Amino acid sequence: MPSATPCRTPGIRWASSCRQPTVSTGLPKTLKKKSPGELTGLLGRISRPSEISFLPYLGGERTPHNDVDIRAGFFGIGHETDDAALTHAVLDGVAFALKDCLDALTVAGTKIDRVLAVGGGSRSDLWLEIIASLLDIPVDVPVDGDFGASLGAARLGQAAALGTTDGIFAKPALKASIDPVPALTESYAEAHGRWRNLYPALKQAGFLRRRKMSTGFFGDLQPIEFKGPDSRDPLSYRHYNKDEVVLGKRMEDHLRLAVCYWHNFCWPGSDPFGGETFMRSWMAAGGDPMEQARLKADVAFEMFQILGMPFFTFHDRDIAPEGKTLAESNANVSAIADVFEKKMADTGVKLLWGTANMFSNRRFMSGAATNPDPDVFAYAAAQVKNAMDVTHRLNGANYVLWGGREGYETLLNTNIKQELDQLGRFLNMVVEYKHKTDFKGTILIEPKPQEPSKHQYDYDVGTVYGFLKAYGLENEVKMNIEQGHAILAGHSFEHELHMARSFGILGSVDMNRNDYQCGWDTDHFGMNVPELALAYYEILMDGGFTTGGTNFDAKLRRQSIDPVDLIQAHVGSADAIARGLKAAAAMIEDGRLKGFVDDRYAGWSKPENAEILKGGSSLEDLADRVHSSDLEPQPKSGKQEYLESLVNLFA
């Protein structure tokens, strides 16, 4: 004899715990203030089915739909709808779902002539009367019926443990039996028929479904929520609260976080000593390359939505396979850009920057813009044009150039002056094309000293600035600075950022970190809060990002093979970055660090000293000044330990 009421009380409890409504919900403000018993007490006697329909699938439904993703909903709500009407709809909706179960059992050949009420719903004679009338069979009410399915599970476990059913499944003592009400039976049967039409119609229209990942790659992962510093949920933001205001601006607008395409969706987990470890389905050998690219895009945008980060970045060869000709390659990129356009419109995710991969194909082994073969130079120009067009089409905020092969392996076969002239002309053509096409984004260069080349011409910020000055580009191009590349150049991240802001060319950052034990670019996720605090101090002192942002140019360790590892890495790094940002903001608000530096150089603000920098003094003038005033300057403490301790107060 099946139980009849295990799902009724959760429905009523849900209704009584609804949040205060907005104008669009139409739910009465008093609904959440009443207990389930108070809500059912509003109804009095029932003379007919509710005029409002309620699908009770708060957590999916098994029988008869077998649909874990279907969700609940009210239909027929009007301005006149009150607490009683909604409560009646909930009672009817759950009763209709039970009728579906009874019908399924009947079709399967099971004859049921009465049911047993258990759980919290067994306390409501009104609701049991609706059930009895709809099912058209009596509902028995046990003396102690306030138990649910857990008792049945416990009995099954007891029978399994003891190896017998003797005395375990005894029928409970009854205190009452609720019979069908003839006046309700026919009207409820008709109402159930109308109610049954809702599910297939709404399913076909795509309503009532929770947000479902289309690929299943991330399983049931839902968007990451901010739960605060006390959260112990590893898949929650503890410090990255996008709406928190820091120095007068939302955190999301300060950081402008971006997920990169290449490390997350293109790198298979290989290293020089071993092959792939990730085994992603879109990388499987023998698959259709464009279908795999579309699947990769689906997974990527699922990840962007789970993380709730506003931007992404890509190389052209990340998003689409290279064809037999450049025309075919461009067509592939354009086709995936079509996919991106729709997904960006649907999700609100934006493009921080695009770029062209001119380092993987063997044609670029001797460089792209710096290649000794003019035909390769021309090919690279054509590829960059297409990548810029796609970036422009997708409203990218920036376009990046990284010269992984723009350098040399040996001077024995290299003409550095020739190659620098080629690189200067190439970059000028990029800037010219930007203005011709009215691309509003910023052109960025990403410095790196070596790897894959022995020596790269964009070695560090200082080197690139000298190059830009030499070719008249210092007012047209800014820097995309990567933490790992700064370390490879023998600098700290904050050094490179400070240099860039000193030259007025700080544009954007690639966030990661290197393993300090290794001598190569390991691209770990940034987790070092003190380092991040100093980095964002430099960024905030420069006024913050304009078109740039924080791109996660970081990859999983090749042993982190689970899809959830991708999410966890970004969540953890985002929290560390948020802590760094807030520490940097606190240092700025405190003012002592900047104040010390200002005081240290305060002497240069005196008129006679400021005149030196303006060219108003010569060596002779300064020599006369020293001798005439018997000048004997004494050193002053740089207070490094004090300043490091000061930073530690915040970081």
Structural shape: elongated
Q: How many strands, which pairing sense, and closed or not: the largest β-sheet?
A: 8 strands, parallel, barrel
Estimate the mean pLDDT confidence. 91
Biggest sheet, spatial arrangement of strands: 8-9-10-11-13-15-16-17
Helix amount, in percent? 40-55%
Number of beta-strand segments: 17
**Count of alpha and pi helical runs:** 23
- Distance linking N and C termini: 65 Å
Low-confidence spans: pLDDT under 50, at least 5 residues?
1-10, 18-28
Output the radius of gyration. Answer: 34 Å
Structure class: alpha/beta
Strand content: 5-15%
Would you mind describing this structure in some detail?
The chain is an alpha/beta fold. It has helices spanning 8-16, 36-41, 83-107, 125-135, 149-162, 182-196, 198-205, 251-255, 261-265, 289-307, 316-319, 326-347, 374-393, 416-436, 461-470, 483-488, 493-503, 529-541, 563-590, 592-600, 607-613, 619-628, 640-650, and strands at residues 53-55, 73-75, 115-116, 139-142, 174-178, 245-246, 249-250, 257-260, 311-315, 350-355, 398-401, 407-408, 442-445, 455-456, 477-482, 506-511, 550-552. α1 packs antiparallel against α3. The longest helix is centred in the C-terminal third of the chain and has 28 residues, at 563-590.
